[in-house]
Amino acid sequence: MHMITLEIKDYCQECPEFDPEIRVIEKRYIGEKSKFDTTVQCRCAEKCERLYEFLKKEGGSD
Predict the structure, then answer these.
(1) Is residue 24 part of a domain?
(2) What is the DSSP code string of 1-62?
(3) DSSP-derived pairing of the beta strands 2-6 and 35-42
(4) Looking at the DSSP assignment, which residues form a beta bridge with residue 2?
(5) Is 14 left (phi over 0), alpha (psi -120 to 50) or beta?
(6) What is the pTM of this model?
(7) Residue 62 within a domain
(8) What is the pLDDT of residues 7-51, one digit of tens each?
(9) Nearest to 28 by CA among 54, 1, 53, 6
(10) Closest Cα to residue 6, out of 37, 41, 42?
(11) Which one, 18, 22, 30, 36, has the greatest CB density within 10 A?
(12) 49-56 — which CB contacts under 8 Å span 24+ positions?
């Protein structure tokens, strides 16, 4: 089984600096096939979130 999750914020839409980063975690259970959880997010996600929160506090638009 393979699960893919996108962790992309609305403000990432059409961002010219979007740089996808993929994390894959394998989960194994005795007697079962391996399961994989794949998460896709931007490498800049933490930086952009801090900037977004700063702009919100300063009265910037959403």
Answers:
(1) yes
(2) -EEEEE---GGGTT-TT--EEEEEEEE--TTS--EEEEEEEETTHHHHHHHHHHHHHTT---
(3) parallel
(4) 36
(5) left
(6) 0.66
(7) no
(8) 999 989 899 999 999 999 998 888 888 889 999 999 999 999 999
(9) 1
(10) 41
(11) 18
(12) 49/9, 52/9, 52/11
Please report, for residues 6, 8, 31, 55, the alpha-carbon distance to residue 42 in angstroms, rounded to integers and kept in the order given.
10, 7, 35, 19
CA distance 49 to 32: 38
Cα 16 to Cα 6, 30, 44, 46, distances in angstroms: 18, 44, 11, 16
Does the residue 30 lie in any domain? yes
Number of domains forming the structure of the chain: 1
Neighbours of 38 (CB within 10 A): 13
For 40, the domain range is 2-57
